[in-house]
Amino acid sequence: MNPSMDTPMDKPLTDPHDAGHHAAPAGLWRWLTTTNHKDIGSLYLWFAAAMFLIGGLMAMVIRAELFQPGLQVVQPDLFNQLTTLHGLIMIFGVIMPAFTGFANWQIPLMIGAPDMAFPRMNNWSFWLLPVAATFLIGSLFLPGGAVSGGWTMYPPLYLQGGISYDLTIFAIHIMGASSIMGAINIITTILNLRAPGMRMMKMPMFVWTWLITAYLLIAVMPVLAGAVTMLLADRNFGTHFFDAAGGGDPVLFQHIFWFFGHPEVYILILPAFGIVSTVIPTFARKPLFGYRSMVYATASIAILSFIVWGHHMFTVGMPAGMQLFFMYATMLIAVPTGVKVFNWVVTLWKGSISFETAMLFALAFVFLFTIGGFSGLVLAMVPVDVQLQDTYYVVAHFHYVLVTGALFSIFAGLYYWLPKWTGHMIDERWGRWHFWLSAISVNVLFFPMHFLGLAGMPRRIPDYALQFADFNRIASLGGFVFGASQILLLVVIVKCIRGGEPAPARAWDGAEGLEWTLTSPPPYHSFAKPPEVR
Amino acid sequence: MNSQASSSDTSYYLPSPSHWPIVGSAALLLLSLGATLTIHDLAGGGLLLLAGGGTLAAMLIGWFGKVIGESQNGLYNDQVDASFRWGMAWFIFSEAMFFFAFFGALFFTRVISVPDLASADNALLWPGFQAAWPTAGPGLEQVFTPMAAWGIPALNTAILLSSGATVTWAHWALKRDRRGQLNLAMALTVALGALFIAFQAHEYIEAYQHMGLTLGAGVYGATFFLLTGFHGLHVSIGTLMLLVILLRCLRGHFRPDSHFAFEAVAWYWHFVDVVWLVLFLFVYWL
Lengths: 534, 286
Ligand SMILES: [Cu+2]
Hints:
- The complex is a heterodimer.
- Chain A is mostly helical.
- Chain A has helices spanning 16-19, 27-33, 37-65, 76-111, 119-138, 157-160, 163-192, 205-236, 250-267, 270-284, 291-304, 320-332, 334-348, 357-380, 382-388, 392-422, 428-454, 469-498.
- Chain A has two domains: 27-249, Up-down Bundle (Cytochrome C Oxidase, Chain A); 269-524, Cytochrome C Oxidase, Chain A.
- Chain A has 18 helices and no strands.
- The longest helix of chain A is centred in the first third of the chain and has 36 residues, at 76-111.
- Chain B is mostly helical.
- Chain B folds into two domains: 17-75, Orthogonal Bundle (Helix Hairpins); 77-285, Four Helix Bundle (Hemerythrin (Met), subunit A) (Up-down Bundle), CATH 1.20.120.80.
- Chain B has helices at 20-39, 45-72, 78-117, 152-175, 179-210, 218-250, 260-285.
- The interface between A and B is large, with 89 and 70 residues.
- The site of copper (II) ion has 5 residues of chain A, from helix 9.
């Protein structure tokens, strides 16, 4: 046990910067018990990296199997387990924890706070994640294997599986609890711990996007918890929520799931908007164009996200009036999203632009996320969606949004803030290699999937007809290169942590914001005294 | 004991490293594994559940005990107090969204899926099925009596509303520093909460033993038991929290101008109250 736990060390910290970290234990115990937002942010980011490796290896196996028609590498059941786990791990284990890692590191720095509002709860939010990940990945080794019904967990398929299905339900519960606590912490920190003078409309865009994301989280993660609880009851306690014989309806699950699921899409992308809205002004050396409209656009996207879930269900049976409503509501989201893309482009206009790796990823984000947004508009049209539902076009669409969108913004954020966090500039040469290899291969990987989907290739199937062979082979080759390129990212990160050119307080000459007024790396407790914001 | 200084001028309280969160994670690990093993009738499930429950209890007592100690020692300034308020308010909001999922299931079933099963589209599949509520659905043999609103449920409504009044009385007394009335009103609130739980337990036993109303009684049974069950769980947690507050009141904790823990529990209790009113309306009455 930690001897310092109950000592008078817990006095009010008149100068938190001085007193706090003498109590910090060393070694593993430090990381298990830490209440420091930077430590916890790093834990989140390393956890996301580990999950990225595991989820990425699963994707490599999937692409290897799809390299040519027929069954070569894995049997269909294992293939289904891998696609299911790949989805769950990448969403709940990589993108969400990585963004939460950024939030932990950056929000206190950006608003001039000493730490997060609830440092102990912050620790718990993180340390729940390894428990959930253990259940998800461990279930691969249980009798019957892991869940194989797709990450969306639809009944009746999901009601039929074995022990790993129940473990996955509990994993979802635990990840939900983690997300809700994390979101409450972020909301409270932003509402209550801003430095004097930091009015809401002066907050950095990244803080704004995370505030709105946190509201989405506390609104929809409990709904997902309710949905999987009903699955648990139907599976084990004899209820008939999703069974027509008892008056229930499997479609009910889809409604509840997608009421969570569509806002979840914005949980995965709004923080990306925040990162890109930070990186682009820095390297264009101009303030963000249309700050107010960015804030309002983000809020509009979040509100609209609650009334579009039906676009995932156009083919399950729905009155035409509802289809029209969900179609138009979905298309409406293109307006605030368009405002954002416009603002990024105008921010670049007449800027004195330089192309550091962070900026390269941010620019690639603007191009490639927009492609993902456009294919989303295509899918929003009911007659088109009826054709494309569950084809590789959908796979192409959401991978453009989540890989070249969310993941590229995470890369941009890493290249942008690592100098602040480590005190060393990154190796731009390696970074550029990572960028160009990733940006080219990711398009080789996902762009052909549009054609495969339009030609009718269904998703989540390990085998396919001969006419799909060429594009699948191209996609797989792109996938292998993309997967291998990520080793470069690991090299860059490790190099940056271990050494390199010392980073000044303001690591980028065009960077604005409170975090750049602190040393690189910043002191253990970020702002001992709240800074004044003009 | 009332050593709290007015500390609004000191800086934000940052707790030192704590082992309670990781203990909590271990508890949830044990509980989930135990539940899974128990569900599948595998060995060790009960043991793990017991260990997990014990660990969770230790964590809650230890963690909240530490927070109460810090509060009593005056480590929390006004800004920390405001953080607690925001945190609790949004926690209750997320709880409301959890119930929203189950109410959504109830409304969907009553308005869409049951009428749909009785429509001409499904006449071949489920011949002769009449859309009515309550129902066990078209394919189950189970015969059950639905729970009537104007027996125990109406009584429970009165009990919960009264407990809402008594907890407000307690708050009123606390703000005027009338400790006798505070203790009395809190004790009454706890007693009313316990009475509610007892009545609901009786109702469940009735349902299972005499009314054929079980979890398996079609979608009526499913929505009935999950909605009232999760509400009952919240009442139980709320009563436990009220009990802790009562014990703290008896030990002289809280001051007229600083008693957020009391208010948080009162908020929670009112929230549970409101959920019950919606439940009474749509599950029992209409
Ligand atoms: Cu959607």
